[in-house]
Design a protein that fits this description.
- The chain has a domain of 177 residues: 3-Layer(aba) Sandwich (Rossmann fold).
- It has eight helices and ten strands.
- It has a six-stranded mixed sheet with strand order 6-7-8-3-9-10, sandwiched between helices. Strands 2-1-4-5 form a four-stranded antiparallel sheet, covered by helices on one side.
- A hairpin with a 2-residue loop joins strand 9 and strand 10.
- The chain starts with 6 loop residues before the first strand and ends with a helix.
Length: 256
């Protein structure tokens, strides 16, 4: 078990194979990765390189074939399914390309539901936290709207609120802007940048260099291997164009 209080997430010799093919398909081929507390890491690579599979295994949504995933020093791969579900509910935030919400609940109740499930005896505190988050991310005015009555950008900001409704250790985002237009993409990335600036550890998969420039570090996958990484340093809006040009040049060297 890791004793490093400055590390939120580690994986060691992580592999993932799928056995529905003959021979089996190995998608992750022995990845070692450390994510520091408060760091924003972006995972990039060509289609089929293993980006989403890696994120699913790091977040406990799927189990690796071999290797270990440690969250704040605790080996997640040794947990039972029920124990892992509790960790995901209470300590891990998840945002996907599509916002998965219940159609029979309004926006606010969709955000609130996981927090109530995680701590049913703390209803008033959960309600206050959710209302504050919705205000902070500019969606308080649609709190009673149905999920089909709001924009894609508003739904993704609601996904961020839902993830932050519990005191999470790390936030995972899998192509969170992949289905959005440019203005909505900026809305969501501004919100994620705000979350990161307050110290939240964030791991995001994206194909979009304009989103990746906001990261502290970009890692590049090829054929299930972590082939390179690039330290980006702190992001500011004024540097965005130059950072994107530099990142694009680096990505082209990788064959992106």
């Amino acid at each position: 078990m890791s004793q490093n209080s400055h590390v939120t997430l580690e994986c060691r010799n992580l592999t993932k194979s799928f056995y529905s093919t003959d021979p089996p398909t190995q998608v992750i081929n022995g990845i070692d990765l450390t994510v520091r507390k408060g760091e924003f890491v972006v995972v990039m690579g060509a289609s089929g390189s293993g980006k989403s599979t890696l994120l699913h295994n790091l977040s406990g949504m799927d189990r690796p074939t071999s290797g270990k995933v440690l969250l704040e020093g605790r080996d997640q791969t040794s947990l039972s399914d029920a124990e892992m579900s509790r960790v995901r509910l209470r300590r891990i935030g998840l945002i996907f390309q599509q916002a998965y919400f219940l159609s029979n609940l309004d926006v606010r109740d969709n955000i609130l539901l996981p927090a109530l499930k995680a701590a049913p005896k703390e209803k008033n505190a959960a309600i206050a936290r959710v209302d504050a988050l919705m205000e902070r991310f500019g969606i308080a005015h649609v709190r009673r709207h149905g999920i089909t009555q709001v924009s894609g950008g508003q739904l993704q900001r609601a996904s961020i609120c839902r993830a932050l409704a519990c005191e999470l250790s790390i936030l995972f985002a899998d192509e969170p802007t992949g289905a959005l237009n440019s203005s909505m993409t900026t809305e969501v990335m501004d919100a994620l940048t705000d979350v990161h600036s307050e110290g939240t550890t964030l791991v995001m998969v994206t194909h979009d260099p304009a989103c990746a420039v906001r990261a502290d570090r970009v890692i590049y996958l090829r054929d299930g291997l972590l082939v390179d990484s690039r330290e980006m340093g702190p992001w500011t809006g004024e540097q965005s164009a130059r950072r994107e040009d530099d990142l694009l040049a680096w990505l082209r060297e990788k064959g992106f």
